[in-house]
Amino acid sequence: MTTFLAVWGAVLSTIAVLWNIRRDLTDRGKLQVICYLGTVVGETPPDHRTHLVYNVTNCGRRAAVVTHVGGLNKKGLAFLINARGPMPRTLQPGEYLLEFTHDLSILDEHPRALWAVDSVGNHWKLSRKALRQLLASHRSSVTKT
Q1: DSSP for 100-142?
Q2: How confident is the model at residue 145 (pLDDT cuts 50, 70, 90)?
Q3: Structural domain includes residue 22
Q4: Residue 142 in this model has a pLDDT that exceeds 80
């Protein structure tokens, strides 16, 4: 019985240590990037142009500092979106950042990635599926006009 309890205690303590290590490694800011096409309403004078909108949300458990938003074009060159507000911006858990640009030429070039970059240098990308849907939406809006 003593041997069983010793083995049981060793197994439980190993699981507890591994769980704490995993928890500490994942206890950080995590950004989610969503991009879509939209228009700005309620401005004077009215702006009827279509904008590329970046919605960057901190889904992690710690604060994250967003240094810039942008992406990577087809030629492998990075580009930045000129932010409307001050950058870098600290996002607490659950907070979001909304940036937009009316320059849709970056979508005409079929970018490889759209992302937000944090202060650690992590590139939090828009998913490939969402990027394909965004490009398809842009193509269909261009053909309608």
Answers
A1: EES-THHHHT--SEEEEEETT--EEEPPHHHHHHHHHHHHHHH
A2: low
A3: no
A4: no
Which amino acid appears at position 102 of this protein? H
Which residues have C-beta within 8 Å of that of residue 116, sequence separation ≥ 6?
31, 33, 54, 56, 66, 68, 69, 97, 123, 124
- Report the domain count for the chain: 1
Assign residue 102 the CATH number of its domain.
2.60.40
- CA angle 113/114/119 to nearest 5° reads 110
Q: Is 81 helix (H, G, I), strand (E, B) or coil?
A: coil
**Cα(110)–Cα(116) distance, integer angstroms:** 18
- Least Cα distance to 31 among 121, 131, 137, 139 occurs for 121
CA distance from start to end of the chain: 80
Model confidence, pTM: 0.80
* 49-70 pLDDT tens trace: 899 999 999 998 899 999 999 9
Using one digit for the tens of pLDDT, what is the confidence trace for 111-137?
Answer: 999 999 999 999 999 999 999 999 999
| Owning domain of residue 82 | 28-144
Residue at 58 is within a domain: yes
In a domain, 18, yes or no: no
